[in-house]
Amino acid sequence: MKPAWDQLGDEYKDSTSVIIGDADCTSSGKDLCDENEVRGYPTIKYFTSETGPKGESYSGGRSFDDLKEFVSDKLEVKCLLDNTDGCSTKEKEFMEKWQAKAAAEVTAQKERLQGMSGGSMKPELKKWLHQRLSILKQL
């Protein structure tokens, strides 16, 4: 798996939204692994605004293509303020609306959405909520 992981790291080395890293849980990374409840090796964990501070364990395929597909589909932020090519029309409209608002309003909206993110909702609504949060964090 190490060659696929290293290739994934190379693929995302210039990314502004994805960081690929590794830790040796048998030596210098032991405290980090204990804090994040790593029990077996190798373990892949990912961290997003949805996963909480300990992250979630990845259980998909271990090939480069499997890992890249997961990162691209689930983790990579494609809608950026400085490059809207990856934004949907809905995201662009949301971005324009909130760019015009005062910083205090943006902060209040971000806090409101963060409070909602732990609640139960349909997957498509949860996805849109996190897309909005991602945009607001960039403002």
UniProtKB/TrEMBL annotation:
Pfam families: Thioredoxin. GO terms for biological process: protein folding. GO terms for molecular function: protein disulfide isomerase activity. Keywords: Signal. One of its GO terms (cellular component) is endoplasmic reticulum. Residues 1-72 form the Thioredoxin domain. SUPFAM superfamilies: Thioredoxin-like. It comes from the Eukaryota. Belongs to the protein disulfide isomerase family. This is Thioredoxin domain-containing protein. It comes from Calcidiscus leptoporus.
